[in-house]
Amino acid sequence: MLEGKEITIILISYALGCFNTGYYLVRFRKGEDIRTLGSGTAGAKNTGRILGATGFVIAFLGDLFKGILAVWLAFAFNLSAPGTVAALSAVVAGHIWPVQLRFRGGKGIAAALGGLVIFDITLTLVLFGLLGLAAALTRRFTASGLLIIFTAPLVAVAIGRPQSSVIGVTIVVFFILIAHRKNISNLVKKWHS
Length: 193
Known about the structure:
Elements: H1 4-18, H2 21-30, H3 44-76, H4 81-96, H5 109-119, H6 121-138, H7 141-158, H8 163-179, H9 181-192
């Protein structure tokens, strides 16, 4: 059972996730809703399409930082392992399904990455190494990234990470795969054609 302090940190983590840097940056710079432009998402990649490389970097770092902050708060307030997993999950869920944007946000990669760096740096570094290897072999970054995301829970088990890491990564992967369902469908169609 989660304590009051844990529920508070989880709610703060969700609220942090809801602050979609790309959405507010495009709203401020262009006066438009980023979700009606480019790919229709409020993430860093689409912000880069609209505002260029600087927009991408600002949005990516903003979303990365909120993931870092959410998990750092969980550790700073000595949350239990389930509470910390919930905080990590909440910041990613907030980015993908922000309440104030009618549950239409980004795809969660930067927020998840920021959270995972603090949550389990060893696992994060292994996943980055595998991503680099897969991208070098296939020359397909998006497909490689989705493959590494999909296999992340298995990698966590294979390298002997604690149960909390396996559970946390599994939940985050589930959220990200839901957010990327169109990309996955398009990749499957390309492979079958």
